[in-house]
Specification:
This protein is 82% helix and 0% strand. By secondary structure, the protein is mostly helical. It has a domain at 38-89: Up-down Bundle (Monooxygenase). InterPro entries: PQ-loop_rpt (IPR006603), SemiSWEET (IPR047662). This is SemiSWEET transporter.
């Protein structure tokens, strides 16, 4: 007895969400620990954060749980990086 096709699609969505979200965690932790932001591009992270916010709104409008979860956490992590850049850059 395996997953239904819908459950399998949802599982792939959550796996993708977890993977792409966790990629920002090491950068955020490093910046919090070292406060070294010289190599961080504020404009890149700013535009990326704006894009993630739009993906979050899109996910909310669709009611897509993996998209909402991933973009909520990713937005929090990237905004942490932006805040660190603004404070220590």
């Amino acid at each position: 007895m395996g997953l239904t096709p819908d459950a399998a699609i949802e599982a792939v969505g959550f796996a993708a969400a977890i993977t792409t979200t966790l990629c920002w965690l090491p950068q955020a932790i490093r910046l919090i620990r070292t406060r070294e932001t010289r190599s961080i591009s504020l404009s890149s992270y700013g535009f990326f954060s704006a894009g993630i916010a739009l993906w979050l709104v899109y996910g909310l409008l669709l009611g897509n749980a993996p998209m909402i979860a991933a973009n909520s956490v990713t937005l929090a992590l990237t905004l942490t990086i932006v805040a660190m850049k603004l404070r220590y850059g």
